[in-house]
Design goal:
- By secondary structure, the protein is an all-alpha fold.
- The chain has helices at 3-27, 30-39, 45-65, 68-91, 98-115, 118-133, 135-144, 147-166, 182-206, 212-237, 242-267, 269-296, 314-337, 340-353, 355-367, 374-399, 402-425.
- The chain folds into two domains: 3-133, no CATH class; 146-425, no CATH class.
- α11 (242-267) packs parallel to α15.
- The radius of gyration is 28 Å and the shape is elongated.
- The protein starts with a helix and ends with a helix.
Amino acid sequence: MDHLEIFYRFGVSLVIGLLIGIQREHAYGEEDHAAAANVGLFAGARTFSLLGLYGCAAAFLGDTAGAPWVTAVLALPAGLLIVVAYALGAWRGWIGMTTQVAGLMTIVVGILCSKGHLVLATALGVATMTLLALKLEIQTFARRVSRQDIYATVKFAVIAALVLPVLPREGLGPAPFDVIVPYDVWLMVVFISGISFFGYVVVKLVGPEQGAGLTGLVGGLVSSTAVTLGLSQKSRSDPGLSRALALGVMSSWTVMYLRVMVIAVVLNMSLFTALWKAMLGLFAVSCAYCLYLYTSHRGESGEEARTFRNPFELLPAITFGVLYAVILLGVNTASIFFGDTMVYVSSLISGLLDVDAITLSMSRLSGMQGGLHISVASRAVVIACAANTFLKGAMVLAIASSGVRRLVIPGTCVILAAQVLAVVLI
């Protein structure tokens, strides 16, 4: 290893330590300085820079001596100093230990830099700075998390990390049952549950107080059908918010096209290539109508957003898995015995229930050797989107107030016309 490489590794450790130290000094605002003065500020930009260099130097000397224990012996005093600093601060009433842990992480980052793991060291440094900088946001998010959210997260971790790996990876039998692979079916359950779970986290981070329009947009990541139902019901008790609630409904519908594109690009790039223009066009039409509603309801005030429950429960996840397997089997059977026409009919019926399931099925079947043609699969997905849009429009027509109906139904007709055009042009 030449001198330039050595200096480069020490330089990276110095920069990472400096950035963490600057963040720590910035974190001590005017209010914290008065309290910190009583116990002594543990470390600032200079100390963190030195900790990064110290860790890098300890690892370098250990490698030079050919004895890893040298690194441990040299790093130990720095670690003990950090522990002593925490003990003194706690004794004087300053019990926070975030800065001390950040100091230990800086030493570890310095060691990694000396070992040549610069990418990992940089990633750890960035992660450390991010966690330190987002203290208020993380605390706010933690206060919004309920006990039910924690249970739902544990259950999601169980199905993703424990159940999935042990499932069989072979089909259940000859055609058309060969498409039912338990591992693949459950993987799709995890995939869609993960998307919905992410959407719910976004809702938690943004907060329901941001208004019906934004809640509809991020709530669509959880379930556009749930948003449509909830805001339609709300419109009966809040007729003065018709435009705001209509915006929330229509905003949630736009997310459906993004979900379809995400599923396609992850599972079947050929299907995404055939679909993206149609999906992007439909997304643009929906966004244009949302923009019209947004500019029309600017003067309204007092919006109250809907709160969302955690979308992950075991029973709905299992139900989705069964639905996906049934659709997969039904579409495959229709393709083998009845041709493309029955595939479209299956998509139309399935789309009334769930667009994600039919998109997953089309991605799987069109990606198999000798499976569905890409054009057939892409038309089937758009047909499913149209069926789902029709269902949500029918929900608005049946449940919502007259004001919301007057605003949403024209948009529904425009979107359905665009979807029919997309089916013809694919």
